[in-house]
Structure formats: C-alpha cells, structure tokens
C-alpha cells in the first residue's frame, strides 16, 4: 500500500509498526518519503531511549515520547536529524531526573 | 531509566483495565476530584505536583479535553521549579492545555529561563516558545540574540531558530521591523558548522524567503555551497548525520526546496542565478541523478535517496537544463516507475509531472516514449498511484497523442474507481477541447464520454459542451444527428438525455431532411426521416424515466419545437395539459407558464420573444478548470508555462463565430488558454502581491543599498588609480586592480583576512548590477569566484570583467559589491565599484593645433556634445598634481609649451584628449580645464563626439576633485 493519502489540501503520511500507527499531516510541497523516514527515525529513537520500545512504554511514559519528539521536530520542522544528539539530550534528561531525585532524597 | 511515578502508572493501568466506557469515565471523575482536592493543599511537593499534572495530561490525551482551571497554578510552579523533570512537565502542560489567548502569564518562566544560565532550562523555554502557545514577541530580542551570538552552544541556537521561526510566523510584522540588519545574519546561519543548527535554520530562512526575498542576497551562494558539501563531499558529513547511507537527507531536501523557491523568486524579478552557484547546483543534480541508478540496500536508504533525487529533479527544471540533462533526469525517473515500492512509484509519477510541466517539450517527449507504461499504471493496485498516473497522463498529452490517450481513458472509465470518475471525465473533456484538430472527432468523443460516464459527468462538462455547440455553427448539425442515435438507446444516462433535449430543441430543425438510418431497426418507428415528430417521440419516451430537472429541460425543448413545427403543436399542448397535474411543483409551474405563453394570443409574438435563438456565450470562464483537480494546484510557473504551450497548440483550432466559417473552430466561451494564464497570475501571489504592496508601502527598498561606512575613500581612489585599496576594516582588506582593454574593464579584487586569530568562513561575494535589466549599459562576467574560506592572513581573488555596452551609463548605475562572511560574528559589507564611463577612457595624444580644430568641430554638435561646469574645492590643487590626476583618469595632457597660458598668472589652463571605448563604438573626448585662485576654483569644459556623454564625464571629474584626490 502507498503510505500517502491526499486529503483536502494536505497529505497524510502514515506508517504502521506492529499494532501502532504513526500519522503525519504534511503540506502539499512537503516531501512524503522523508516524512516517512522521520516517523522511522522517531520510532528508532524511542526504541533506543526506552530500550526495545513497545506500546505500553509509550503510554506509561508519554512525557518522554513528547520529549523525544520535541528534540526531533519542533513546530513541524525537523530540528535535529542526528541520532546521537537526540538520544544524548534525552539521556541527559534522564540523568538530570535521577540526580534531582537523589538530591530530594538527601535533603 | 529513572523511576516511574507510581501513582501515575497505577492510574494509567486502572484506565487501561476499564472494561467499559462508563467505568473509565468514573475512574477519571474520581481522579479529577482527587487532584482538585490535592491542589488546594499549599504544601504540595514538586514531585506530587508533577505527578498530578501528568495525570491531567494523560486524561487530556485520552480525549477528555474539557478545560479545568485548577491546574494552572500547579503548572506555573512546575515551570518555575529548579528541577528539570518538573520544569519539563510544566512546559509540556502549557503547550498541551493552553490556547494562545490565555497563555499570557506563561511567558514569565520563559523570561527567567532565557536569561538564566542553565542551558537545559533555556532549551525547554525555547522549545515552548516554538510551540507558539505563548506570545513570543516579548522575548524576540533574546531569541535572536542566541542565534546571532557565535558563543551560544549549537543546541540553543538550533532551538532559538525554531522559536524565532514561530515568532515570525505569528507576527510577520516583527520580521519586517527588524529585517534590514537581521535577515542577512539569519541567512548566514545556514552555513553553520553544526548540521543540526543548519537544518533548523533552513526552515527559518525558507519562511524569510517567502516574506522578504529581496533581502536574501547572500542566500544562493551560501545554500548552494552548503548543499554541495553535504551531497558531494563524502567526508563532510559525520557519521551521526548519516541516515543509513545517505548524508543528512533532511538538510539536503530542505536546502533544495529553499533554493528552488529562491530561484522562482529570481525568475520572477528577472534576476539571474550567479554562475558559480548555477554550476554547483547542476553538478549536485547531475551527481544525484547518476547515483540514483546504483542499487542500495534497505528501504530506509532507498527512501532517503529517492527523496533527495525527487527534490533535485524538481529543481532541475529551474536550472535552464540542457536537453541531455532533462533526458537523463526523465530516464532516471522512468526506471523507477516499475519499482515494487508503491511509495516510489507514486512519487516518481509526481516528479515526472513536475518535470514534464516545467521541462517543456524535451521532457514531455522523452516521457511520452513510456506512455504505454504510464497508461498501464492506471491499473495499479494503489489508488494514490492510479490518481497520480492520471495526472501525469493529463500533463503529458499533446496534439500528437490526444487520440490514443482519450480512447484509452474512455475505455478505462468503466474500471476506474468511483472517486476518480468525475475527475477523469473532466480531464478527458479538457484534453479534447485543448487538442482536438477534428470537429467530428471532438463531438463524437464528447458525446461518447457523456454516454459512458453518465451520472459521473458533472454539470460543468455537459454545460461546456453545450456552450461550444452553441458557439460553433459547424458542429450543430453533426451533434444533432449523433444525439438522435444516442437517444435511441433505452439504457441511456440522464445526462445524455439532458444534452439530447437541449440539442434537439435548438438544432433539431437542421436534421429534418436527413435520412434516419436506424429508424427501421427500432420498434414502433416507421418514419424514414428524422422528422420533428420522430424527435418529439424520442424525447417523449425518455420523459417519464427522468428526474424532474431533466424533465424541465425536455419541457423547454418542446416549447422550442412548438415554435418551429406547426404539426407538433397539438401534441405539445396535450402534453403540457397533462403536466399541469405533475406532482413536482417546478414541472407544474413550467407547464402552466408555457401553456399560457402559447395560448395567450393567436400570434406567436410572446413565443418569439421567449424562445429566440440561443445567443453566443461570451463568458470567459471555462467551468471545467475548477474540476481538473490536483493538476490545477501545481505551482505557478508550471501553469504559466503550460498556458504558453497550450496557447500555441490550440491557436490552430480557434476561429471566429460566423456563418461563413469553414474548417475547425471551437470558439469556446473563453477557452482554456485564457483561463490557465489567469490562473498563473493568481497562483503567484506570495511574491507578486507583496511586490505590488511594497511599491506603495514604506517597506524595504532593495534598489538603494546602504553602503558600509567609509566606503568613499577607496571608491574615489579607484576612479583614477588602477590599483589600490578599495575597502578596509579590522577584519578584511579589499584591494583592487583594474585593467582596461578597449571596452572591457578587467577587475581583480583580492580579499585578505587581516586577523591573526580567526578564519573567515562562509564568504559570499555578490555583485549587484545597478544598471537597467532590459537595456543594460554594462554587463558583468564572472571569471573566478573567491573561495568561501580564508585562513588567517591568507587571501583570495575574485575576478570579473565588465563590458561597457553603451554610453548611456549614468553616474548612479554603478554595481555594488555585497560581501558577507563569518569571522567570529557575522559581518556584511557593501561597497560601490568604479564602473563609470570615465573609467573607459584611454589617452589619445593630440597636437594643440589639432585640438583647436576638433574643439570647434565637436562644438558644432550643439548642447548635447558639451558640458560646462564651474566648481570650487576646499583643497587646493597645484597644477602639477591636477595634470597627474587627469592623466591617471585617461586623458592625454597636451604639453603646455605648445600653447600660451593666459596672461593672468592666477589662471592655469590644462587641455586633454582621450578616447572613450564602448561596445557601441569609440568616441573622442576633449577636456578643457581652467583653474583659478591657486587651484581652488575651476571651470571644466568637456566636449565629446557622442551625445549626452560630456556631462556625465564632467560630473565624475568634479565629484572626484570635490572629494579630494
């Protein structure tokens, strides 16, 4: 199946991973293939960040999924296509959180 | 991974375990109640606030979007917390819960975080601004500051770029207010060494190009260079930016899109792509197309590679491609058509549509070779592919292929998807109308289309056919005959009946004498001729199978028949009487009205008034174009080009309305040609509309650049010295060398990095011609472009030639040199270059006696050959230095021993002669300078054999002497 649907003035690009669907609505002049690959990159990075990601990971830790997305895409624009950089940012956030918790416990 | 928030996990688990909707709702209600109570506790810990806000968010994500007001306080506390995860939750809740209208106070934590020194917090704040929820205009300067400062870490710059984009999008007036100084700097961020920053900046610059393309002069060289590094230099892109095997595909595609958009703008203002950029872009496109044939492993690589390929091919159309380049591009695409990947087939078709509509004939013909393959794709298993294939076929069709294509498409109709059919019908109709060379063919095909497509034919199509029939006498008889044939068919679509009723009503009388070949085949029909009675019966038999609106048309047709054929009158009257009882009010009304009209008087006066001959349609709009579907949405230059193409091809079919007309004519009402060129003017709004408005508004005026401070010294020096320093600041020195060769001035500019501590990177040098574009007085030809990077104490050369074409070069048309580069911070320079008529002067020694003779000869030319200027200077010029200056300008100074100096010793005479070289021809120049008051007061007389040149030369000399040489 083609992963692109023209809908009104936009295009819907979707991709399915097991039981999960990822959808992106893009403008007509946007590049469909690369949108598909953004979805793929997002999934890859969630996979790394969560460690073998599954649907439940995303549900129970949705704020992290948002964080990864914010590093990758902001306001519909690709921000950072580097694998490492996004993961580094998300990992850093985890470290910070751990550190904060540690401090909370000590105080 | 950090520990979970247990309460949150439990809550999510509860909801997931809910068996029914009601149970879920109850659980949520309980939780909301709980949270509301908790938030009343002022001693709540940060962690607890985070947990409860997270629960609220989860409820929100589930679709319970009712706005609660009790969370804002807690979220504010979270956003101002010193703990990262709490702050993150705070901002996340703002961006999900809030509408921009009530996000006013959320800017407070943003302000704190932007000014604070915690990079992670700054990043969160910037990301929040980039969501556009909070009003970012309050933090505009700070955000811009991050992007501008070279010391900001890439992470922050990247997010600042996104935030700035969002602020500008929401408040375009902020961009306008700051554009002059900001835009060149923002464009320069494209070349940031960090590819993440670069990627983010492309989006921002793309927005600026839509708004203020005239200020993005440094864009093309910068973007092109970045693109070529990414695409062509295998060592430039680090591993982490490789997407599978493809270097930074997002950056490449976005850059290509940006470049394409900017070139569209250049075309629009009739500017030109500078040659080095053009060459680089062609190389990038060429290499990408070549690479596309090499097989890659893995879907991801292929997708990314194809994405870059499609973007390149889309750009190719704007690069004045050679026929070979176009052919190789179409070939590369055609190869991809039988890819097993549906997405690839789909996008290949899309790319082919763009290429064929922009690439003109070559691309079209080359693609047409594979017409059968493309026609075959109409049977593809995927609907999106089928739709695109149809679009491509539509753009490909030419007069040569129209018959094959239409034949195929008409047959295809039966198997086509229901959703595709209306569009298909419109496309067939438009193609027929555009390319038909044969009237019989046109009518046959269109009627066949209506019979085949039946109810899928939109109102516009059959109305259009009627317009064309009414406007073209030669088609009417044929149409009437064919309609009779179709009406014999029992299983006829109503659309056909509508057309049939109209045609027989209007033109039925034309075929009364025609033999009715099929008559004996049909039961109950005995007439050998197509008499009025036969026509009446045909419609009458259809009448009761039709819907009211078709019946109404038939009723009207009968009225027309009534007028023409007396023998039908009783029949028609009976019929109308019958329909007085119709249950449809419209039919009943019509029957009543018609009956009254024909029985009102004995004569037919009223009838004649009402049922006159159908007037010619003068409406210029072709109703079909609205239905052409996605094709009509293709961007401006495309439809523009297509408009031109069609214009030519359809001109052969255009002819005026009239009885004596022979040959083929569709004087369609207006016609497609007009329509599509109108569409093209409407379709280019973003540049055109603004161009119009900027003329009247006090917006930025690109024509008068503000020059860099202290530009004059170098400029005036360059008016008489052939080499020296043109400009200098603390970072850079520009030296020049000018060589004259007849009408060609050779320029060599050398840019030297004066610093000993920093490299200059991302240098772009743009020469902007100041002469008119239609009749340029000079043309600049680039010889060698400077390199973009200059190491410490190193230099680079920039060579170009200026060809003087005519003497009509006034003193305000000099070209400007725009330099921009990064050296620590972004710097840009603008200086004028000495391209003036005076610079084309070379010495031509003349004896004094000859000088006098020529002086008198040229004087006979009248006022246009002479200029006399009196002026004073603050600086005193000794005679000897005056002579040197004038000699350097290109005059041969007559030896003062040859003539008598005036008796008054305070006066000095200097005489000089020279030849002015232009492509237009060479002209003699005579100069007569009288210096008084110890070289402070002057009278300058110039005479020149070319008209209107003397004054220009004189003014240049005066300006130099007044400035101080």
From TrEMBL, chain A:
Any one GO CC term of the record = AP-1 adaptor complex
> Where does the UniProt annotation locate this protein?
Endomembrane system
Q: In which domain of life is the source organism classified?
A: Eukaryota
Q: Which residues form the AP complex mu/sigma subunit domain?
A: 1-96
Keywords (A to Z) from UniProt = Membrane, Protein transport, Transport
Principal subcellular localisation of the protein: membrane
Q: Does the keyword Oxidoreductase apply?
A: no
Q: Which GO terms are recorded in the biological process aspect for this UniProt protein?
A: Golgi to vacuole transport; intracellular protein transport; vesicle targeting, trans-Golgi to endosome
Regarding protein family, the annotation reads: Belongs to the adaptor complexes small subunit family.
Q: What is this protein called?
A: AP complex subunit sigma
Annotated organism of origin? Babjeviella inositovora NRRL Y-12698
TrEMBL record, chain B:
GO biological process terms, alphabetically, are: clathrin-dependent endocytosis; intracellular protein transport
Q: What is its main location?
A: membrane
Q: Which UniProt keywords apply?
A: Coated pit, Endocytosis, Membrane, Protein transport, Transport
Q: Where in the cell is it found?
A: Membrane, Coated pit
Membrane topology (UniProt): Peripheral membrane protein
SMART domains to which the protein is assigned, alphabetical: Alpha_adaptinC2 (SM00809)
Q: One GO CC term of this entry?
A: AP-2 adaptor complex
Which Gene3D superfamilies does the UniProt entry name for this protein? 2.60.40.1230, Leucine-rich Repeat Variant (1.25.10.10), TATA-Binding Protein (3.30.310.10)
Domain Clathrin adaptor alpha/beta/gamma-adaptin appendage Ig-like subdomain: residue ranges: 716-834
The similarity comment for this entry is:
Belongs to the adaptor complexes large subunit family.
Tell me, in a sentence or two, what this protein's role is.
Adaptins are components of the adaptor complexes which link clathrin to receptors in coated vesicles. Clathrin-associated protein complexes are believed to interact with the cytoplasmic tails of membrane proteins, leading to their selection and concentration.
Q: What is this protein called?
A: AP-2 complex subunit alpha
Originating species: Babjeviella inositovora NRRL Y-12698
